[in-house]
């Protein structure tokens, strides 16, 4: 059954920029400026691989893009159930875009659970491609369908394409010596071939990928290739798909350069490697696997040729302990984790504060508390990063804004750690970690020089003229103490968590010394050189200045910017600023906040940045919060910001 209403190109969220007609008998080709596609099925249906391959071909074609993989929290939920649904959303366009999109124009549903779990997000008129083979009575009852949604009229408002994906895949692979179960596994490649035909995606990269992935199993490689081509041919020949779509490359969006598609965790890994090369230091990662940070451990373990050493520890505490030891030994030291792991690492972070050694603590935030939502995103670790240690233990905090920006954020975190001899917390999250976008590969001469000077000999003269090494004698500009490599003659000094005497580093229980050291460590963090906050306010200096500022941090950048663009297109006046440095704040933040009557702070928590801003600057900042494990939608934010402007 096919229900025909408006095509997805008539929706407000997507525009037709041209139409191209082929000769009589050939299929129509419609040109679009952007499309949002969501692949959904069981976690064993290969939806992440399908989405990743479609994304890779889209990136090679030159579109701007943004993705949102959405994994089930269970390692392997029962097949055909709502908790087991895995999805991958891709937004691609011929112009600059910022988010994976609010609502899919196309939903590919591999079973009834995938259809039911995603229909709330699908707008009327969207294309829905369903695998009819899975719509058995038992499968539908399992997710609460009393009647077949493909037949009861409940989908009449959509452009439904019923396709027996499983049957057609098995038929396409009958020449191969595969069991039916083995053949069925290739149905995701059939779907990928069909969607690749619908949207004129290149195929060479996927075919090369399949040959490489299954090089040791040529029969499986050939079967997947056959399924992929069968899906393409089905789109070409069937009457059910009368129109295909073209989305031109975003040639005017990107500055000249070499680009690749990159996820946040991959960009972070590359940023860490680049930082170690720019610092001329070996990179050491001490880590314990935890979702969604594990990909960084996996990636860095591949790069021993760049002097990277990775240690998979037995637990979170051992991971950071090894990393701090590597910092003491002269490495660029890193530990990666998510929110629950930061809690376990807190005592060692405090030790790093006391020892004043450079250490990068990377927190890929996820929903909490406790184990919480391992595969969902959240921004709820900010106050833990700011205050989650005993005693006065200030730590700089850096947050990337997009997947590609994770590279630059890693470089910046390394700069601060090495320059000021301090642990630094980098707050990414699951949305950035797993999402992807185009990234311009930088030239090496664009990267900062991060080289450090290790202590080489005595740096202090006692009253009797004796030259000695004082491990806590500070640089007058940065307040950083010297970094002495163990084994360097004459640089022997005490180490440990007990309070140090100023200068000499000897153990001290003196109250006045402790007060001085606490204030000095805080002054070092407060004095970190960070750029001024840039404000995007087109009304500045026009005489009709905006009275509302939307302030964000981290991964809310894309949805906030998309919402602000919508409001400005509608004639609203609104300013926007986004924080990379959360401790210390940019020095001009207070002055920026005072320029606006209203300050709105959207966060994926219950108002943690708003709490800090209100406390420090006495500004009546208003929170707009969401903690459902998913990123903001641009339309939702635009409505909230419009209320703030009008209120």
Which terms would index this structure?
647 residues; 7-stranded mixed sheet; 6-stranded mixed sheet; globular; disordered N terminus
Write a concise synopsis of the structure shown.
This protein is an alpha/beta fold. It contains 20 helices and 25 strands. Helix 9 crosses helix 10 (294-300) and helix 11 runs parallel beside helix 12 (339-355).
Question: Which secondary structure elements does this structure contain, and how are they paired or packed?
Answer:
Blueprint: E1 16-20, E2 28-32, E3 34-42, H1 47-61, E4 64-70, E5 85-93, E6 106-109, H2 112-118, E7 127-131, H3 137-142, E8 159-163, H4 165-172, H5 180-184, H6 187-198, H7 204-213, H8 218-237, E9 243-247, E10 259-263, H9 264-279, E11 283-287, H10 294-300, E12 308-312, H11 316-328, E13 332-337, H12 339-355, E14 359-365, H13 382-387, E15 397-398, H14 405-420, E16 423-429, H15 430-434, E17 436-440, E18 460-461, E19 467-468, H16 511-526, E20 535-536, E21 548-553, H17 557-569, E22 575-579, E23 581-583, H18 589-594, E24 598-603, H19 608-617, E25 622-625, H20 634-646
Parallel strand pairs: 2-9, 3-6, 6-7, 7-8, 11-12, 11-13, 13-14, 14-16, 15-16, 21-22, 21-24, 24-25
Antiparallel strand pairs: 1-2, 3-5, 4-5, 10-17, 15-23, 18-19, 20-22
